Amino acid sequence: SEVESLCFDLPMTAESDLTELAPPASQWWDVQKLSESDNFVAICKPAGMFVITDQRGLWEESPTNFIHVTHRRFPMPSSNEPRQRGICHRLDSHTSGVQIFGKYWEGFKHFTAQNSAHKMQKEYIALVCGRVGGEHGPHNGLIDVPLKKWQDFNRREFGSVICTTDGLPAVTKYKVLRHIHVPAKGVLAFWGKDRWFSLVQMRILTGRTHQIRVHMGFIGHPLVGDIKYNAKLLEEDYAIVPRIFLHCLRMEFEDMDGSTFVASSDLASDLQVGLTRLLEMSDDVGPDATDASGEVPVASLGFPGLAVLLKRCKPLQGLYDDAIGAASDEKSLPVLTEVPRPIVQRCNHCKEMDISKCTAFRRGRRVSLSWCLETCEASRGSDVEAVSAQSSSGGGQAAASWGRGALWVPTSLQTEASNQEEVDLSQDATAEDLRGWGTEGAEWAWAHDGVRQNGWLRMCSGGGLASRWGTGRWHLLEAVSPPLLCVTFHDVEHVLRLDEPGRGPPGCELVAKRRLSSEKSLLQDVGSPAYQSALDPELPLVAQQGDGRVPEL
Known about the structure:
Distance between the termini: 64 Å
Number of helices: 13
Low-confidence stretches: 286-296, 323-327, 390-399, 542-553
Strand content: 25-35%
Largest sheet: 13 strands, mixed
Shape: elongated
């Protein structure tokens, strides 16, 4: 099959050749020329410089504008070309590595044609969380998961989500170079437990927004230092790396004269420092971790380069790796038993059901994994046993180890998911269900400022809640009399207290408000100061800070 062919036949640069043609990296804040031909120039972009191809991005004179800085440092014929100024592709602002400039407009068009035909060999290196492939492997695979670019200008949220209906094809091939085990001790004791990391080489066949970051998160191994797709581990990651650990190592394509244009960049110096420090703290460094005397710490060796750092770390010893597998009889290799089971979920974007799958392919002694996302219709009839999972909403649920549930969900899609919570709204709650609240009925108006109505709530039998903003839940906090009413929608819990009789029209006031994506429910926080505050009628109300009052409908 085509997938199997990509798994085994799509070439990737050998480890020994990854940085063979790269000039030494001695700094990480300025641009550096890597290679040049009659038609193209390869520049190493440092992290922190942005690449934007609208008119402002092309011409803004800023020290963080990569296009401007490059043309100042290295004059080229495309400096005043009005459409692209020579820039052929874009890296994210916090990603470093190879960027190609065309010297002429014809060079840009040639590069675009090569890229569209998937004839471009673009390879990256990343440090990811976890032990990819485990101890025995397989330590290589293919990720075929379509991506939909996400732009929410109101919330300033940008990235990519996975979607089989509206997403564009995106394919990433990966190969694990090293596993690194770091104990939680010393300055890293705050981790609470040891951590595994994997240094991974990747080749991308497409160039979707945040493709590597989303794809590695999809298989359960997000990039170290990724503020968007691995936010929950950001504090732990920043103890070992200064930024997202992603670098474009190498690009290779056919030049306009038929020759092969190769641009290679050694690992950025700031990432070399981070990797060196990680190896110093690791218990998996090889025999070359120190000099001949064994007394010089690794951290004092400066910027040794990726090739040297790889030698300092133990190579993989998996059963399916080339060196081990080649020495084993094909029949003696064990059958894979740890391939994750498929997961059926609903897409937050298109609302259709899809299935996340992992398949193992074997060719002789070699084994490779294929990860994909398909519509349930496309998977119908295949011999898979899937497990169902709730659509990820971004809050209030246990984190999934891989698949859709392990990925970032934009705020507006979280809101839609919360609005679509399946609750029974067929019957209003009775006065007996609502205790002291039932004397005024099950339906109430909502006034954000305590005066002017801008919404409504309706409590239903069984704890279901209908509101202007979608469905949710309600429950009573009966530690006081009359009980407090907790209503939850949009993943936000509002705790309401009935007004004292005689204060005017029947109503209530907001005494606590919690975002359940980052805070416990008040019911799970019994005994805390916030809990006691909600029970004490003498303490100030949240509503007095302008958050709301709910008069009777």
